[in-house]
Amino acid sequence: MGQKILARLSPDDILLIKQKVFGGRDDVSVDAMIVQGAYVSEEIRSKMGLSIVNPPENIHRMQRGNIYVGDTYSANMVGSILKKVGIEFLSAGKYLDFGCSSGSLTRILKAAEPDSQFFGVDPIKSSIDWASKNIEGATFKVSNVEPPVDFPDGYFNGVTAISIWSHPFINSRPPRI
Ligand SMILES: C[S@@+](CC[C@H](N)C(=O)[O-])C[C@H]1O[C@@H](n2cnc3c(N)ncnc32)[C@H](O)[C@@H]1O
Q: Which ranges of the sequence are coiled-coil (predicted)?
């Protein structure tokens, strides 16, 4: 997915990131380019559709770190699985990230597929409130622990659910975070 995001930069932008952050080196990974590039300038960040606004300590997210634009690891995993099974994101599809926490995957998927609509649900209200306020271009909703989710049947073209039932709610009480 990173390649799709990086592809929106000009050769001059790419050169600037390499010079400013990586001492002109060429052997830099795509993810390092997009993550570090997002911190080089607002213009580069905006071309990539990324944001460097990140949840504070009291808001749930799995990945921590100061230089962070979202969950590039899971986004790449989704991208490579889809490639393996020969499925592509539809150009104006609707996609749900089930158990999205504070939207770390949603924000990268939206950057990679800007013409599609992205949604995230999670029972943790503070995460959803943070994502709703801070992640542009996606819709977040608090979900119940038990089905159903609050969308019509057949609404989505695809659903991701990363690392959810390994961290279940017990007796409908939120996990300690
Ligand atoms: C380990 S975190 C993973 C968060 C995110 N998917 C990621 O990979 O960064 C597990 C998430 O699943 C959510 N969750 C747990 N039980 C759920 C349920 N029954 N329905 C929806 N989300 C649930 C939690 O609130 C939490 O945000």
A: none
